[in-house]
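Could you help me review a protein record that somebody else here produced? Here is the record exactly as it was handed to me:
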Amino acid sequence: MVTINKKNARVWSMLGARGTYGAAIFELAKERSDFMAISADLGNSSGLRRFQTTYPNQFINTGIAEQNMIGVAAGLAKEGTLVYASSFAPFIAFRGGEQVRMNMGYMKFGIKAVGIGSGLAMGHMGNSHYGLEDIAIMRAIPNITIISPADGAEIVKTVFEVSKIDEPVYIRLTGAANNPIVYTDDYSFEIGKGIRLKEGQDICIIASGTMVYESLNAASILEKKGISTEVINMHTIKPLDEKIIDEALKKCNLIVSVEEHSIIGGLGSAIAEYKSDKENTPPLYRMGCPDIYEKTGDYQYMLDKFQLKGNQIAENIIRRLGV
């Protein structure tokens, strides 16, 4: 397993989510040779160039054919091979959706589908490449675990942890180059278990992916306003960690979900669905990408436009609280 420290965290930050995924796959190959990495003509974009060059017999390029890529991955998985299959998030979720549903959901083949460039990371490539609805699609398919790592360290943790289970997984990679750092030291990562990064009593922010860092920044601003704020990294969106949510519902006056995904069908929706069966719970304020296709721009511009920066998250929460 790769060591998590400040030096590695800086390197992974500079590489960005895709580069870090490729680095994690390369490190995994040093420990085991019984897996394959597949790409839909996006080996370089998936950060897999070094892996492809060093371990050519463990890499397959299916071409721009996500449906076929999932089919090939299913054949390998059926024969007992651990397989990671990567492409841009909307192309896996939409174009390969039927194959994902049948081979991963219905047949339960242990494919690790990796959505690169999820959220708004594709910048000027625009709405055709933005992965804003992928969680909604994947979450509706039975038997698929969904993980959205908070930063480079958690991407590495995820790649290694999912290699230990023979189950279908969707890994959602958000963020661009120079990704913000959340973890600089080793920590306990368990699939299906949220991580409480900050204790608080007044409100609880539950975030995933890049929004974990932004939520920590928002919490710092809110604390200065006298608002005690808890922050939870909900890296696993399915299955949802119901226990940690129950704890927040009991002690906080407002629950806030923050995600780089449509406000429909993602983390916020998952929390709302769970919470709807319970009585006398605090309100849920969902923050994410609006239910529209907007004009596009670079990554930081889009985060700012959709008010997903830490200061904007804090300001919106303050307005919601009316303080």
